[in-house]
């Protein structure tokens, strides 16, 4: 009987493993500088506070507070704006503790605005603290070659410029440029 129980546990594990693999996320995004404040006004916003447990090339581990909601995110190397991303909900108080006590400093503080434009959602990040003055816009895409229209306030594409990655803004904040 124990043998059968082990067998069923193995099948259940294999099923859960393949289910996990099927849910693997690939994030495809493009990042741009913002050239004016025309985007302000008709948007929802939420305060983000985030820190990094690891900022090694090819893998980052981020802890984030979105308002009072906690998230743990693991990201792999990106190529042309696409890369593995796994995100998990964690209790907000635990996220706050990790940011305050275990994450690299300085942590990232920013207000995120969501703006709908011609069928797509743009996320505009207005940074504070040591990255004050930096404003970036991101759009998440379904495919690398997906076509989209840019609003007039979108400037240079900085997707491939590593200085603008949040994990690098911890190591080399915008105020040091």
Report on this structure.
This protein has 177 residues and is of the alpha+beta class. It has a single domain (28-176), classed as Beta Barrel (Hypothetical Protein Pfu-838710-001), CATH 2.40.320.10. It has three helices and nine strands, in the order αβββββαββββα. It has helices at 2-22, 92-101, 166-171, and strands at 25-34, 44-54, 59-66, 69-76, 82-90, 108-117, 120-127, 135-140, 154-157. It has an eight-stranded antiparallel beta barrel with strand order 1-5-4-3-2-6-7-8. β3 and β4 (69-76) form a beta hairpin.
| Residues in helix, % | 10-25%
Distance between the termini: 67 Å
- Find the structural class using helix and strand composition: alpha+beta
* Shape designation: globular
Number of strands: 9
Within the CATH hierarchy, at the fold level, what is the topology? Hypothetical Protein Pfu-838710-001
Residues in β-strands, percent: 35-45%
Q: In order across it, which strands form the biggest sheet? A: 1-5-4-3-2-6-7-8
Characterize the largest beta sheet: strand count, sense, and whether it forms a barrel: 8 strands, antiparallel, barrel
Number of structural domains: 1
Low-confidence sequence ranges: 1-23
**Average of the residue pLDDT scores:** 86
Query: Tell me, what is the CATH class?
Result: Mainly Beta
Order of helices and strands: HEEEEEHEEEEH
Instruction: Give the radius of gyration.
Output: 19 Å
Tell me the name of the CATH homologous superfamily.
Hypothetical Protein Pfu-838710-001
The CATH architecture is Beta Barrel
Q: Helix count?
A: 3
């Amino acid at each position: 009987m124990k043998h059968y129980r082990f067998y069923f546990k193995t099948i259940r594990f294999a099923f859960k493993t393949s289910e996990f693999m099927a849910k693997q996320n690939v994030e495809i995004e493009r990042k741009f500088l913002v050239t004016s404040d025309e985007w302000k006004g008709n948007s929802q916003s939420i305060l983000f506070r985030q820190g990094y447990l690891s900022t090694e090339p090819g893998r980052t581990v981020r802890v984030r507070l979105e308002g009072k909601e906690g998230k743990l995110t693991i990201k792999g190397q990106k190529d042309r704006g696409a890369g593995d991303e796994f995100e998990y909900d964690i209790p907000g108080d635990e996220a706050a503790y990790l940011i305050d006590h275990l994450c690299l400093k300085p942590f990232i503080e920013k207000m995120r605005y969501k703006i709908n434009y011609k069928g797509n959602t743009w996320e505009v990040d207005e940074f504070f603290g040591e990255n004050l003055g930096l404003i970036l816009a991101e759009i998440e895409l379904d495919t690398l070659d997906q076509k989209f229209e840019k609003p007039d306030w979108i400037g240079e594409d900085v997707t491939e410029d590593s200085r603008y990655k949040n994990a690098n803004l911890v190591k080399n904040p915008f105020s040091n440029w």
